[in-house]
C-alpha cells in the first residue's frame, strides 16, 4: 500500500507505429498524493514531465469507460485503480495500439454490433410506462451498469492466449445478454451467442475479476447465455452436445468417467486420433476401462430423475 | 491535401442532442455525418445526467408546475417559457416512450411502480442514481451504429465554413491520423454541449474546451448569457482526477431524505428539502455555502462536507451508483462525511438561437442542446432540441443546393491548424501548461463570487497568456498520430477566446441571478435586468447588447430582491 | 484433524496418482480423511449450465453427507472446491431455494443444513495447520528446486466466494513452497487459465492456452509446475506435447500435484506418491533433489 510512499514510479509503454521501430518504456517518478489514481499519475506525467504520452480518458469517474490500461499485468480503468508505488503501465491487451496507451477499440465495438445488441420487439410497444416489474428484469439488471470499457475483453485468455478471434469476448457477450434477458426482447439471441462462439469460453472468471463495475460477467452474462443455448438448441447441435452428454454420463455412473465422455463427445474416430496419448495415459494408470467409483450411483440417478421429472 | 467529405447535414457533438439530431436527419432521409471530438455517448456531458425527471403534462396544473420548476429554479427567469412548455410536452409524450421502447429501464419495484423520491414521484433513475445518462447514451449509440450512420470519432471540429452569409460546412482534424478534413454541407448542427473545462475544477470531460462556442464566436455569430455559469457545490474534493464525482443534492430514490451539506465544524447548512420545488438546487446550495465561506467554515475547494449519515443509507446501496464509488474511496457513508469542493459546471448561455428552429444568427448553423443559450440542464430537453434542429436543417438541405466553399477560407484554416503542429522551442511551454494556467485564472478570478476588479484582472491575465505564452507554445512531439498535445494547442486558442467573451459578458451584467453572483451587485434586479446579454465578435473586440426577456406565463414576484435571500 | 474428503472424479481416474498421494500425505501428517465415497461429481462447469437445479441438488447432497458426519469438507480439485463453496453460499443465503432442494433430498433421506464448510487442501495446509507446524514436519527440504506454483482460476476467482488469497497477486502457494525449502519462481501465468474446460470440445483453444503457461514457466527456468487442481494437471501433463507444440515449449516440464510435492518434503517415497504415473517424466525433479 502506498500510504507512506513519497513517490510513485511509473514505467510507461511508449510506441508510435509511425516512427518507432518497436515499443519502448520510459520511467517517471511522480510525487505521491493521498487517494491518487493511476489516471492522476498519467496526468502528472503529461503535464509535468515534458513528454506527450498518449492516453485516453474523458470523465475520471468510471462512466465513459475509456481509460482502460494494463497496470502490472492486469487490465484496469486508470480512473478507478489506486496508484501503487511501482507500476508498469501498458495498453490494454487484445486490441491494436494506435499510439502509446491508446488502443483501437473499433474491432471490439464491431464484434458487439455483430451480436445485434439493440432491443428487438416483435410486439408493438404499448405506452409509457409499460407494464414491467423489477423481478422481471432480474437477469438483465446486473448487466445494465456495464460501461463497455472492454477491460474484461482485455483480460480474456481465449483471446489473449489462444488468439481465438471467432470468440466474441466477454464485453460483447454482456451487451448481448443485456438485451437477451430484457423481458420484452424477442430477438434470436441463441443464434447470436453461437455466432460469437460462446462455448469457447473457458470459465476462468478473468472477466468477472477484472470488471471495474463489479459485474460477474461469467456467471451473470456468459453462463446464463450458455444456459439459454442449451435450453433452446436442438439436441443434435454440436456445440451443446457435450453438455448433454456430460449429464448422461453423470446419470449413468454418478461420476464422470472420462473415457466414456470422451468417446461420446468426440466419437470413436476422433478419439482414435488421440490414441497415442490415450495409450500413454493407459500405461500410467490414468484410464480405467470401467468406472470404479459408482457407490452412490443409484441415489444420484434417483435425484436426477426427481429434478428432471419436475420440469 | 485535405480530405473532403460532402454531406447534407453535418452534426458536431456526440451527446444526446447530437445523437438525436443525427437520428432525426437519418430518419428524414438525409445524408448525415456525425463528428465527435471524443466518442459518441462516452465523452461530453450527457453521460453525467444522473437523475431523470418524470415530467407529466396531462393537466394544465401539471404543466404549470413543471413550467415553474424549469423557469424559476433551473432558468432563473432567463429561459423562453414557450420553449420550456414545448420541451416538457416532448419529454412526456415522446422522449420517455421512445427511449423505453428502445430498452431503457427505469428502476421499478417488484410490483412494477417506479422507484421515485418518496411521495413526490418526480425523479426516476435508469437503472440507478448517477447512471441514467450513460444508459440513455448507450442505447442511442447502439442505434446510430446499427443504422450505420456515418461518423468520425476522435475528430475535432476546428472552424466553420461560411459563404454568402450562410454556413456551408466545417473543417476538422482527425486526431487518430492527424488528417485535416473539410466537410461541405448544406447545414451545420453544432451540439457540443453546455459544459467546458475552463476552470481548475470543472465537471466537463477532458475534451470539452469550448470548441463549439469558439467556432461560432469566431464566425461572428451571436452568443447569449455566457456569464450565467452553473457550479456544482458538492463534488468530491479529491483525488483530483475524480472531481467530477457528484454528490447529488437532488431528491433521492425511495426516500424523502436528501443529502446534507456540513461546514468545517460539522454543522449542517443545506439540504434540498429546504426548497421543495427546487429539484436541482445548485444555485441555492451555493448561496448557503457562500455564507459558510464568509464565516471561515468552508472554502471553495474543500473544508466542507456532504453526508448521508442522517438517513438509512441502504437506499444508496440499492438505488445509487454512488454508493460503490464512495466505498471504493474508503468512505463508510453511514458514518463518514465526504469532503467536497465546487466545480465549474454547465453554462446556461451559449449560441443564441431561434427556439422554434434552433437556428443561430447565421443561417444554416443550428445550435441545439447545451451549446445553445436556452439550457436548463435536462437530457430530454436537449434531445428535443436535436430533433428540432435536424428537422429544420433537413428542410433547408432539401430546398437548397450547396454553393461551394471559399477555398481561401479553407486554406487559411488548414494553415492555422497545421501551424500548431510545432516542436517545443527552447524555454517554450507545452499547450497543456497553458491550459492549466487559463483554468487557474478562471478558477481564481471568475469563480462563483465575482466583482469588477477581479474580472478586469482576469482579462489582463488572459491577455498576457495570449501575448507571452501562446507564441512560445510547442509540442513534445510532432507526430500526427493521436497527438493530444496538438489538440491541446488548438484548444488553447478556443479557450482564451471564449473565456474573454465570458468575462466581458459578466462585466456587462450588473446584477446577480441564480448561479451568477456579483458581490459588487448583490441583488436580483427583475426590473432592469430581465435581459439577455448578447455578445458577438466585432472588428475590434466584442459588441454587447442587452435584449429583454419575454415572460410568457410566469413572472418573478419581486422587482428587486437581495440575492442571497432570493429563493431561486 | 478429521475432515470429510471429496476427491472428485479426476483423482479417481485420469489423475489416480493424485488420490493415492493425497491419502499417503494425509496419513503421514496425521490428518484423518473420511472419504465421501458415495458423493456425486460436482458438475465441473457443465452441469450448472445444463441444469442449475440439478447442480444445486447434487452438491447439496454432498454437503449434507459431510454434515451428517459432523465434518468440514476438504478437496484437492479447485473446480470442485468452487462448486461446493458456491452452492453452500447460495443455499445458506436463499431460504426458498434451500427448501426446494431439501424437498428433493428428502426422497433419499438427506437434509442440507449449511453447517459444513468447504476448503481446498492448500488452505487446510496454510490456515488450519500453519506454516510453523508444517515446517516442523519437513524432513527433506527441497533445496535448489525451482517451482512454478500454479494457482489456476477456481481457488482464486470469483474473489467474493473464495477470499483466501488475492486473485491478482496471490502469495499463499509461494509461502508453502518456501516452507518446503524450494524456490517459488515468478511467472505471469500462475493465476491464469489452463484451458481445461474446453479441452474436450475445443482442444485447439485449450492447448494454446496451456501451451502459453508451459512456456511462461520454462522462461522463468522452473524445474516443474505444481498444480492445485487435477484438471489443470490434465491440461498440462497428458496434453503437454499438444500444448507445447502451440508455444514452442519443450514438452518435458514435469507437472506435480500439490500432495506429491508436499509428500517429497515429508520424506515420502516417490513410489508412494506415484510420481512414475505421469505422462511427462518427473525424473528431472527427483534428480534435482537427489532421489
* Mean pLDDT level of chain B: 96
Q: pLDDT under 50 segments of chain B (min length 5)?
A: none
The best one-word shape of chain B is globular
In total, the number of strands of chain C is: 8
Could you name the ranges of chain C where pLDDT drops below 50 across 5 or more consecutive residues?
Answer: none
Q: What percentage of residues of chain C falls in helices of 4 or more residues?
A: 40-55%
Q: Report the average pLDDT across residues of chain C.
A: 96
Taken in chain order, the helices and strands of chain C follow as: EHEHHEHHEHHEHHEHEHHEHH
The number of strands of chain B is 22
- Name the beta content range of chain C: 5-15%
Main sheet attributes: strand count, strand direction, barrel closure of chain B: 7 strands, mixed
The end-to-end span of chain B amounts to 54 Å
Q: Largest contact between protein chains? A: A-B, 65 and 68 residues
Helix proportion of residues of chain B, in percent? 25-40%
Oligomer: heterotrimer
**How many angstroms separate the termini of chain C?**
30 Å
Compose a concise summary of this entry.
The complex is a heterotrimer of chains A (311), B (568) and C (291). Chain A is an alpha+beta fold and 311 residues long.
What's the arrangement of secondary structure elements?
The complex is a heterotrimer of chains A (311), B (568) and C (291).
Chain A: E1 7-14, E2 24-31, H1 38-48, E3 68-71, E4 74-77, E5 86-90, E6 96-99, E7 102-104, H2 106-114, H3 151-155, H4 157-160, H5 170-180, H6 189-195, H7 206-210, H8 217-232, H9 238-253, H10 258-273, H11 275-283, H12 297-310
Chain B: E1 3-12, H1 16-27, E2 32-35, E3 52-53, H2 60-74, H3 81-101, E4 123-124, H4 132-146, E5 151-152, E6 155-163, E7 166-174, E8 179-190, H5 211-218, E9 223-224, E10 229-236, E11 260-262, E12 268-271, H6 282-294, E13 304-307, H7 314-319, H8 322-328, E14 338-347, E15 350-351, E16 365-366, H9 379-399, H10 407-419, H11 431-445, E17 449-450, H12 452-469, H13 484-508, E18 517-518, E19 523-525, E20 531-538, E21 541-548, E22 560-562
Parallel strand pairs in B: 1-2, 1-8, 2-5, 8-16, 17-18
Antiparallel strand pairs in B: 3-4, 6-7, 7-8, 9-15, 9-20, 10-14, 11-12, 11-13, 13-14, 19-22, 20-21
Chain C: E1 2-6, H1 16-29, E2 32-35, H2 47-50, H3 52-69, E3 73-75, H4 78-93, H5 95-106, E4 118-120, H6 121-129, H7 131-137, E5 146-150, H8 159-162, H9 172-179, E6 183-184, H10 203-219, E7 224-227, H11 230-236, H12 240-247, E8 255-257, H13 258-265, H14 283-288
Parallel strand pairs in C: 1-2, 1-3, 3-4, 5-6, 5-7, 7-8
Amino acid at each position: 500500500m502506498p500510504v507512506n510512499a513519497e513517490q510513485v514510479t511509473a514505467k510507461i509503454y511508449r510506441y508510435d507505429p509511425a516512427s518507432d521501430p518497436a515499443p519502448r518504456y520510459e520511467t517517471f517518478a511522480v510525487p505521491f498524493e493521498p487517494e491518487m489514481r493511476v489516471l492522476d499519475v498519467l496526468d502528472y506525467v503529461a503535464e509535468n514531465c515534458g513528454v506527450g504520452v498518449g492516453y485516453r480518458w474523458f470523465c475520471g469517474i468510471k462512466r465513459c469507460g475509456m481509460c482502460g490500461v494494463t497496470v502490472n499485468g492486469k487490465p484496469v480503468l486508470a480512473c478507478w485503480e489506486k496508484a501503487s508505488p511501482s507500476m508498469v503501465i501498458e495498453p490494454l491487451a487484445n486490441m491494436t495500439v494506435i499510439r502509446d496507451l491508446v488502443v483501437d477499440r473499433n474491432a471490439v465495438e464491431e464484434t458487439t454490433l455483430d451480436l445485434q445488441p439493440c432491443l428487438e420487439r416483435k410486439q408493438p410497444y404499448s405506452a409509457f410506462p409499460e407494464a414491467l416489474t423489477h423481478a422481471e428484469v432480474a437477469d438483465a439488471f446486473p448487466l445494465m451498469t456495464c460501461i463497455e470499457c472492454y477491460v474484461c475483453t482485455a483480460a480474456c485468455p481465449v483471446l489473449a492466449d489462444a488468439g481465438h478471434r471467432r470468440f466474441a469476448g466477454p464485453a460483447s457477450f454482456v451487451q448481448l445478454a443485456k438485451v437477451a434477458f430484457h423481458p420484452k426482447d424477442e430477438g434470436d439471441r441463441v443464434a447470436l451467442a453461437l455466432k460469437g462462439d460462446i462455448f469457447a469460453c473457458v470459465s476462468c472468471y478473468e472477466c468477472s475479476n477484472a470488471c471495474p463495475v463489479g459485474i460477474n460477467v461469467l456467471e451473470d452474462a456468459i453462463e446464463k447465455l450458455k444456459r439459454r443455448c442449451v435450453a433452446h438448441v436442438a439436441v443434435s447441435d454440436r456445440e451443446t452436445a457435450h453438455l448433454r452428454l456430460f449429464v448422461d454420463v453423470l446419470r449413468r455412473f454418478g461420476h464422470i468417467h472420462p473415457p466414456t465422455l470422451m468417446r461420446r463427445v468426440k466419437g470413436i474416430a476422433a478419439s482414435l486420433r488421440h490414441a497415442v496419448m490415450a495409450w500413454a495415459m493407459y500405461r500410467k494408470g490414468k484410464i480405467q476401462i470401467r468406472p470404479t467409483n459408482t457407490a452412490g450411483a443409484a441415489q444420484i440417478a434417483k435425484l436426477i430423475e426427481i429434478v428432471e421429472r419436475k420440469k | 491535401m485535405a480530405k473532403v467529405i460532402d454531406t447534407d447535414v453535418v452534426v458536431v457533438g456526440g451527446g444526446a442532442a447530437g445523437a438525436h439530431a443525427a437520428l432525426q436527419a437519418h430518419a428524414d432521409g438525409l445524408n448525415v455525418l456525425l463528428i465527435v471530438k471524443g466518442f459518441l455517448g462516452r465523452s461530453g456531458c450527457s453521460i453525467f445526467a444522473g437523475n431523470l425527471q418524470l415530467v407529466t403534462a396531462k393537466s394544465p396544473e401539471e404543466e404549470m408546475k413543471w413550467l415553474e420548476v424549469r423557469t424559476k429554479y433551473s432558468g432563473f427567469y432567463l429561459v423562453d417559457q414557450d420553449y420550456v412548455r414545448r420541451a416538457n410536452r416532448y419529454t412526456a409524450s415522446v422522449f420517455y416512450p421512445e427511449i423505453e421502447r428502445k430498452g431503457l429501464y427505469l428502476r421499478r419495484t417488484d410490483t412494477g411502480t417506479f422507484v421515485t423520491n418518496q411521495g413526490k414521484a418526480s425523479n426516476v433513475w435508469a437503472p440507478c442514481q448517477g447512471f441514467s445518462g450513460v444508459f440513455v447514451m448507450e442505447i442511442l449509440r447502439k442505434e446510430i451504429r446499427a443504422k450505420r450512420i456515418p461518423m468520425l470519432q476522435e475528430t475535432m471540429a476546428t472552424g466553420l465554413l461560411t459563404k454568402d452569409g450562410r454556413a456551408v460546412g466545417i473543417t476538422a482534424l482527425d486526431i487518430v491520423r492527424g488528417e485535416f478534413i473539410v466537410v461541405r454541407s448544406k447545414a451545420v448542427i453544432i451540439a457540443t454541449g453546455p459544459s467546458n473545462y475552463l476552470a481548475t475544477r470543472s465537471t466537463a470531460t477532458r475534451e470539452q474546451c469550448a470548441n463549439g462556442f469558439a467556432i461560432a464566436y469566431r464566425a461572428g455569430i451571436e452568443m447569449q448569457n455566457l456569464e450565467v455559469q452553473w457550479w456544482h457545490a458538492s463534488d468530491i474534493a479529491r483525488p483530483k482526477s475524480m472531481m467530477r464525482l457528484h454528490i447529488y443534492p437532488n431528491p433521492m430514490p425511495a426516500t424523502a431524505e436528501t443529502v446534507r451539506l456540513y461546514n468545517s465544524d460539522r454543522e449542517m447548512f443545506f439540504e434540498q428539502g429546504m426548497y421543495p420545488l427546487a429539484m436541482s438546487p445548485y444555485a441555492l446550495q451555493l448561496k448557503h455555502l457562500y455564507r459558510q465561506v464568509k464565516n471561515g467554515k468552508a472554502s471553495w475547494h474543500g473544508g466542507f462536507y456532504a453526508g448521508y449519515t442522517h438517513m438509512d443509507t441502504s437506499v444508496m446501496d440499492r438505488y445509487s451508483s454512488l454508493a460503490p464509488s464512495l466505498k471504493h474511496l474508503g468512505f463508510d457513508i453511514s458514518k463518514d462525511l465526504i469532503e467536497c469542493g465546487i466545480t465549474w459546471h454547465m453554462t446556461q448561455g451559449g449560441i443564441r438561437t431561434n427556439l422554434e428552429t434552433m437556428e443561430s444568427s447565421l443561417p444554416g448553423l443550428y445550435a441545439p442542446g447545451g451549446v445553445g443559450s436556452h439550457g436548463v440542464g435536462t437530457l430530454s430537453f436537449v434531445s428535443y432540441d436535436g430533433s428540432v434542429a435536424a428537422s429544420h436543417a433537413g428542410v433547408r438541405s432539401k430546398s437548397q443546393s450547396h454553393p461551394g466553399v471559399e477555398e481561401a477560407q479553407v486554406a487559411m484554416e488548414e494553415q492555422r491548424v497545421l501551424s500548431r503542429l510545432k516542436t517545443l522551442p527552447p524555454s517554450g511551454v507545452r499547450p497543456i501548461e497553458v491550459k492549466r494556467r487559463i483554468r487557474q485564472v478562471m478558477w481564481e478570478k471568475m469563480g462563483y463570487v465575482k466583482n469588477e476588479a477581479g474580472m478586469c484582472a482576469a482579462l489582463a491575465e488572459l491577455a498576457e497568456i495570449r501575448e507571452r505564452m501562446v507564441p512560445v507554445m510547442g509540442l513534445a512531439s510532432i507526430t500526427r498520430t493521436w497527438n493530444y498535445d496538438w489538440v491541446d494547442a488548438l484548444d488553447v486558442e478556443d479557450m482564451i477566446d471564449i473565456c474573454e467573451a465570458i468575462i466581458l459578458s459578466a462585466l456587462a451584467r450588473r446584477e446577480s441571478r441564480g448561479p451568477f453572483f456579483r458581490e459588487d451587485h448583490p441583488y436580483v434586479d427583475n426590473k432592469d435586468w430581465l435581459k439577455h446579454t448578447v455578445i458577438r465578435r466585432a472588428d475590434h473586440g466584442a459588441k454587447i447588447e442587452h435584449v429583454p426577456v419575454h415572460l410568457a406565463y410566469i413572472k418573478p414576484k419581486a422587482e428587486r430582491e437581495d440575492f442571497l435571500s432570493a429563493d431561486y | 484433524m478429521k475432515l470429510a474428503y471429496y476427491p472428485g472424479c479426476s483423482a479417481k481416474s485420469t489423475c489416480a496418482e493424485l488420490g493415492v498421494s493425497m491419502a499417503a500425505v494425509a496419513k503421514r501428517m496425521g490428518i484423518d480423511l473420511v472419504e465421501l465415497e458415495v458423493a456425486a461429481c460436482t458438475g465441473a462447469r457443465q452441469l450448472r449450465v445444463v441444469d442449475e437445479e440439478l447442480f444445486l441438488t447434487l452438491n447439496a447432497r454432498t454437503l449434507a453427507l459431510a454434515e451428517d458426519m459432523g465434518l468440514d469438507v476438504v478437496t484437492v480439485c479447485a473446480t470442485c472446491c468452487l462448486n461446493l463453496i458456491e452452492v453452500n453460499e447460495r443455499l445458506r443465503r436463499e431460504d426458498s431455494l434451500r427448501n426446494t432442494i431439501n424437498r428433493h433430498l428428502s426422497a433419499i433421506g438427506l437434509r442440507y443444513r449449511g453447517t459444513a464448510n468447504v476448503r481446498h487442501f492448500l488452505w487446510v495446509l496454510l490456515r488450519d495447520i500453519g506454516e510453523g507446524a508444517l515446517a516442523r514436519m519437513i524432513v527433506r527440504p527441497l533445496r535448489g528446486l525451482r517451482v512454478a506454483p500454479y494457482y489456476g482460476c477456481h481457488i482464486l476467482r470469483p474473489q467474493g466466494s473464495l477470499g483466501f488469497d488475492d486473485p491478482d497477486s496471490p502469495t499463499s502457494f509461494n509461502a508453502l513452497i518456501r516452507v518446503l525449502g524450494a524456490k517459488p519462481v515468478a511467472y505471469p501465468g500462475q493465476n491464469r487459465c489452463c484451458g481445461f474446460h474446453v479441452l474436450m470440445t475445443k482442444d485447439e483453444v485449450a492447448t494454446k492456452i496451456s501451451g502459453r503457461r508451459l512456456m511462461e514457466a520454462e522462461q522463468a527456468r522452473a524445474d516443474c509446475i505444481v498444480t492445485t487442481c487435477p484438471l489443470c494437471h490434465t491440461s498440462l501433463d497428458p496434453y503437454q506435447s499438444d500444448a507445447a507444440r502451440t508455444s514452442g515449449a519443450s514438452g518435458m516440464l514435469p507437472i506435480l500435484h500439490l500432495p506429491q510435492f508436499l509428500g517429497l518434503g515429508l520424506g515420502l517415497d516417490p513410489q508412494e506418491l506415484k510420481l512414475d504415473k505421469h505422462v511427462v517424466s518427473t525424473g528431472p525433479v527427483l534428480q534435482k533433489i537427489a532421489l
